[in-house]
Amino acid sequence: MYVIDQDIANQISKTQKFRNPKMARLFSATEEEAELIEIEEREKIGELSGDQVARGWIMYAPLLFEHAAITNFIREKGSYYLRAMMPEILTSSEAALIAQKDIMLTEEETMALKKLFDKRL
User: Residues 55, 118: contact at Cβ < 8 Å?
Assistant: First the structure.
């Protein structure tokens, strides 16, 4: 995963419940499997919404959709330093705005990403 270290994602997957089956698969995947999942998602989303929107999706969907699992893991482990790597993102608007800032999305791309997050929530 881009934002979440795969070893940490694997640890999260062993102790937490996920609300999204696709994210559960991504968190429990090996580094190679996660890369293939991300490539597949980027291609699907990229065809519909463009490469930058797909990039934003891959980077921030795990943080948005599984924020409860991530937060529970951090609390249980007392590993609050992980928040720097995995910021808490609670809304599709917040995720889209962070992506806009981090990867320089245009306003149109930002709105497309927000709609995509909303649609999949």
Answer: no
Distance CA 109, CA 100 (A): 8
> Which tens digits make up the pLDDT trace of 95-120?
999 999 999 999 999 999 999 999 98
Locus of tokens 């995509």: 116
Q: Helices (H) and strands (E) in the chain — how many of each?
A: 7, 0
Digit-coded pLDDT (tens) for 60-83: 999 999 999 999 999 999 999 999
Percent of the chain with pLDDT over 70: 98
- Dist CA 102 CA 44 (whole Å): 22
- DSSP codes joined into one string, 84-105: GTS----SHHHHHHHHHHHHT-
Query: Burial code of 36-67, b = ≥16 C-beta within 10 A, e = fewer?
Result: ebbeebbeebbeebbebbbbbbbbbbbbbbbb
Q: Would you give the DSSP letter of residue 80? A: G
